[in-house]
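Data availability (excerpt). The following record was deposited with the supplementary files.
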Amino acid sequence: MKETISTVEYASLLYDFYGELLSEARKDVMNLYHEDNLSLSEIADELGMTRQAVHYTLKKAEAALEQYEEKLGLLARYKENQVKSKRASDIADKLLADDNLTAEERESVESMMRIIEEITE
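Predicted structure:
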C-alpha cells in the first residue's frame, strides 16, 4: 500500500479512516495539514504553536494512525475490496458486451454492477 502512493497520501487516507480516534489537538493539525494543505509554519500561526510543536504533533498523530491500521487493517481491506470490485466490474463489462445475453440476463448483470458501485462508494 505505502509503496504505491506517497507518504502524504497514505497519511491522508489513514486520517480519513481513523481521524476521529485522535485527540482534538492532533485532529486539528492533521486536518490543517492534510485537508487544508497548510504548511507547518501556517499551522503554527493558525494554532498559536511553534513550528516544531506542529511537526511533533503531526508525527505523533501519523504514528497513532499507523498503529490503528496495524491493529484494525481497515485501509488494507478497503484497498483489497477496491481491487476485487474492479475485477468484478471488468467481468460484468465483458458479459454486457455479449450480444447473446437475454434481457433478463442483461438486467441481472446491470443490477450486479450497481451493487458493486454501492459497495465501493
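Summary of structural features: The radius of gyration is 21 Å.
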